[in-house]
Specification:
Shape: globular
Oligomer: single chain
Largest sheet: 8 strands, antiparallel
CATH architecture: Sandwich
Order of helices and strands: EEEEEEEEEEEEEHEEEEHEE
Radius of gyration: 22 Å
Number of domains: 1
CATH class: Mainly Beta
Number of strands: 19
CATH superfamily: Immunoglobulins
Length: 278
């Protein structure tokens, strides 16, 4: 299974001693995608006691074969769920069955307060098949939530300058482009588990990442730096991000108009109005 998936699966998984759980809001939906090598798959929702509580239409399954590979996609809708759950993935290969379990997942309306990460790649890669149009099969966009976020006053001003030095040691600014970056914290005060951080680290390898609907990317050369306490399992992570200027709602409107033919590629939707670009 690709590491880009927002939920990881293990042969055995129990609630760890630190009690950390992955979190989603009951307004969220996300995807899991697997490449089938002749196996069939079934995904179920278990409650805290291990009973199957899968609701009709809460998990939507589809598949598509591309370049000799069969991609099995599960869309998971958390609407109607509230409490602690676990996903169980059943792989059937011939007469044998294999069982895999996710981290425990806390689903709550209060989790809308957590930072929402949505991510994808422009092209198929990392063993993930993305949807090219609203009619095609595959992953639309992955969703994951985490504690942490941006602080209000953490803008870091920067500029890209080209400076010419004259022969008499006088300097002349030829070109300057001002911009800013922001410090992004994952884990807040209490931190997150290494299992979840493994997933989030892969999130930022994607070329399209939205944080609470606004586009960001890793600043050049930036990497995650941990804050940790001895004998404490959870860690907080910090990284410097740069805004891309993208907005998820606006981008989805543009994509819809491109697909239906109402918007020509030399037009873009900006602040809910059309701006002609020559």
């Amino acid at each position: 299974m690709s590491a880009i998936n927002p939920i990881r699966f293990f042969e055995h998984y129990k609630i760890p001693k630190d009690g950390y759980m992955q979190k989603f809001a009951n307004t969220d939906d996300t995807y899991i995608q697997i490449i089938s090598d002749g196996s069939t798959f079934d995904l179920r929702v278990l409650n805290e006691q291990g009973a199957d509580v899968t609701v009709i239409n809460s998990i939507q399954q589809s598949s598509i074969t591309l370049a000799g590979k069969t991609f099995v996609t599960f869309k998971i809708l958390f609407a109607g769920l509230k409490g602690i759950y676990q996903l169980r993935l059943i792989e059937t290969r011939g007469e044998k069955q294999y069982f895999y379990y996710s981290m425990f997942i806390c689903v709550s309306p209060d989790n809308t307060k957590l930072t929402k990460l949505q991510y994808k790649n422009t092209f198929n890669r990392d063993d993930i098949k993305y949807r090219e149009t609203t009619l095609s099969e595959g992953v639309d966009i992955f969703t994951i939530r985490t504690e942490g976020g941006f602080q209000e006053k953490n803008y870091i001003p920067k500029s890209n300058d080209t400076i010419y030095m004259k022969g008499d040691y006088r300097f002349h600014l030829l070109h300057s482009l001002a911009y800013y970056t922001r410090q992004f914290t994952i884990g807040d005060t209490f931190g997150i588990s290494d299992e979840l951080f493994y997933t989030i680290n892969n999130v930022f390898s994607c070329d399209t990442v939205y944080i609470n609907d606004e586009g960001y990317t890793k600043f050049e050369g930036a990497s995650f730096a941990p804050t940790e306490i001895d004998h404490y399992a959870l860690r907080t992570w910090n990284i410097e991000l740069a805004p891309t200027g993208d907005n998820l709602e606006r981008d989805e409107q543009c994509a819809s108009l491109f697909c239906t033919g109402f918007l020509h590629p030399n037009q873009y939707l900006f602040n809910n109005s059309f701006l002609k670009v020559s």
